[in-house]
């Protein structure tokens, strides 16, 4: 009697994939995924800061808002903004955490009528310089000497090290992200030197802590300038130059031309003190950038590549210092060069 072949025996036998081939395919897939991750980690630009989307002059967009809103009026500030607690204070204004339509905002109040001119100078600068480089203005009230701006919970740049030391931010505590912060900082200086309001000088920068306090760290780890109370104008065509304050300055942080030039035997006299230009900002860039780079792995490599441009920034002759645009171009070139080098070396190891 003939026997039927079992169903399982019909057709050609299926060939199993050899284990070695499966392992090679898995490794190839893992390498491809790792390449994509490397491209994202080292090359992808930082996301845009919240609230940076362009709005017409006199309007703002905050966070998830779909449409631009006009700057808030006195009446709206009085009735719609709820003051919560004080979060900072300087010579010109007190800053309070506040709430507007369930959003956290920063409410600034004039500290004293004696510095009212500085307060309103800062407001005029905020109004005229609104851009991705400047904190977003939400409204103001001249009658109450108040202004409202976007709130950044990470605070001023002075808090950078404490913030990056938190466990949840360890992944961004890298030379790449720190150098990007330095790029942001120089971008702001370059913007102020070529602003819609002319060449502006950051005068509230007599030492490193004071300078850092002028900038805010956003939630996506980019920088915006916040304090514009002392931003005088340089106009070469009318031979208008600046003097930062009316007191004698000291130390290595300020530029040499900001120091009293007539020796210790001659008492300081503001009327005799020579004026200067925006190149005082250039002198300070290496010190601020060194702080931003910190001492993480790779930061010394970045410093090595920036040595020449930083040396030029420290020229005793202001005219010989590079422009902020020159420095920005160098920073971006170094950032891209080192990113490409690290990615290439990592891929060769795979």
UniProtKB/TrEMBL annotation:
Function field: Protein O-mannose kinase that specifically mediates phosphorylation at the 6-position of an O-mannose of the trisaccharide (N-acetylgalactosamine (GalNAc)-beta-1,3-N-acetylglucosamine (GlcNAc)-beta-1,4-mannose) to generate phosphorylated O-mannosyl trisaccharide (N-acetylgalactosamine-beta-1,3-N-acetylglucosamine-beta-1,4-(phosphate-6-)mannose). Phosphorylated O-mannosyl trisaccharide is a carbohydrate structure present in alpha-dystroglycan (DAG1), which is required for binding laminin G-like domain-containing extracellular proteins with high affinity.
Protein's name in the database: Protein O-mannose kinase
Keywords: ATP-binding, Endoplasmic reticulum, Kinase, Membrane, Nucleotide-binding, Signal-anchor, Transferase, Transmembrane, Transmembrane helix
Membrane-related topology note: Single-pass type II membrane protein
Ranges where the Protein kinase domain occurs: 81-350
Domain of life according to the entry: Eukaryota
GO MF: ATP binding; carbohydrate kinase activity; protein kinase activity
Gene encoding the protein: POMK
Keyword ATP-binding attributed: yes
Lineage: Eukaryota, Metazoa, Chordata, Craniata, Vertebrata
Primary localisation category: endoplasmic reticulum
Localisation per UniProt entry: Endoplasmic reticulum membrane
UniProt cross-references to Pfam families, sorted A to Z: PK_Tyr_Ser-Thr
Keyword NADP: no
Catalytic activity: 3-O-[beta-D-GalNAc-(1->3)-beta-D-GlcNAc-(1->4)-alpha-D-Man]-L-Thr-[protein] + ATP = 3-O-[beta-D-GalNAc-(1->3)-beta-D-GlcNAc-(1->4)-(O-6-P-alpha-D-Man)]-Thr-[protein] + ADP + H(+)
Principal EC category: transferase
Species of origin: Ursus maritimus
GO cellular component, one term: endoplasmic reticulum membrane
GO biological process: protein O-linked glycosylation
């Amino acid at each position: 009697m003939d026997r039927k072949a079992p169903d399982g025996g019909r057709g050609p036998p299926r060939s199993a994939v050899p284990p070695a081939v499966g392992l090679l395919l898995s490794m190839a897939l893992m390498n491809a995924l790792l390449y994509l991750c490397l491209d994202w980690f080292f090359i992808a630009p930082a996301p845009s800061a919240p609230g940076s989307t362009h709005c017409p002059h006199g309007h703002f967009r905050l966070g998830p808002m779909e449409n631009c809103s006009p700057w808030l009026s006195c009446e709206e500030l009085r009735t719609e903004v709820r003051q919560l607690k004080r979060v900072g204070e300087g010579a010109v204004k007190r800053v309070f955490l506040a709430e507007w339509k369930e959003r956290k905002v920063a409410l600034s109040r004039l500290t004293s009528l004696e510095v009212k001119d500085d307060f309103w100078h800062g407001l005029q600068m905020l109004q005229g310089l609104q851009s991705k480089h400047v904190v977003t203005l939400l409204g103001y009230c001249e009658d109450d000497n108040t202004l409202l701006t976007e709130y950044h919970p990470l605070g001023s740049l002075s808090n950078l090290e404490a913030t990056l030391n938190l466990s949840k931010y360890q992944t961004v505590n890298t030379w790449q992200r720190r150098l990007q912060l330095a790029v942001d900082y120089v971008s702001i200086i370059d913007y102020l030197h070529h602003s819609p309001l002319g060449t502006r000088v950051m005068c509230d920068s007599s030492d490193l802590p004071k300078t850092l306090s002028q900038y805010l760290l956003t939630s996506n780890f980019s920088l915006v300038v916040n304090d514009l109370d002392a931003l005088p104008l340089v106009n070469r065509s009318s031979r208008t130059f600046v003097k930062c304050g009316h007191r004698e300055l000291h130390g290595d942080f300020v530029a040499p031309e900001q120091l009293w030039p007539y020796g210790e035997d001659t008492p300081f006299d503001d009327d005799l003190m020579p004026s200067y230009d925006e190149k005082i900002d250039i002198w300070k860039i290496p010190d601020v950038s060194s702080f931003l780079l910190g001492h993480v792995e790779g930061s010394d490599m970045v410093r090595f590549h920036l040595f020449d441009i930083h040396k030029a920034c420290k020229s005793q002759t202001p005219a010989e210092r590079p422009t902020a645009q020159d420095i920005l171009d160098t920073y971006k070139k170094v950032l891209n060069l080192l990113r490409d080098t690290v990615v290439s070396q990592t891929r060769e190891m795979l």
